[in-house]
Amino acid sequence: MFYFLLLALGIPLSDTAVKPVTAITPEELIVCPVEEMPTFPGGETALKTYLEKNIVYPAAALKAKVSGTVFIQFIVDKTGLIGEAHPVGSFKGYGMEAEALRVICMMPKWKPGKQGGMVVSTFLNLPIRFTIPPPEKQPIKKRSL
Known about the structure:
This protein is of the alpha+beta class. The chain has one domain (20-137): TolA/TonB C-terminal domain (2-Layer Sandwich), CATH 3.30.2420. Helices cover 23% and strands 21% of the residues. The protein has four helices and five strands, in the order αααββαβββ. The strands form two sheets. It has a three-stranded antiparallel beta sheet with strand order 2-1-5, with helices on one face. A two-stranded antiparallel ribbon has the order 3-4. The termini are far apart. InterPro entries: TonB-dependent_transducer, TonB/TolA_C, TonB_C. It is found in: Cell inner membrane.
């Protein structure tokens, strides 16, 4: 009866067989959390300055008067490079996730994390707050003649 149900459901018996698991080498392992977290060059103050200098408030968000915090998850690999960045959590839209990704992907190398005295790749979640700038700091709209 069970065999008949599997055939009726379109599930071939070969798909139920145990499949070998490929081994993960220590170089591919992503450790989280780690004893020593990755750090931006110059520390948290430098990271804040970098974000303030490079984030361009999306025009669509400015026009819609939308603000909020976007969370981006990424990997800092063993060499300090950023990879696999993507937004997580609730989406704000209006170009905010795209802008956060743009700025994160152009970051300089970080100091990688360490576990047991060894350099390892690890995940980070970075909140990026979009606050509507005051009128004097908003981009000047060019008028056509």
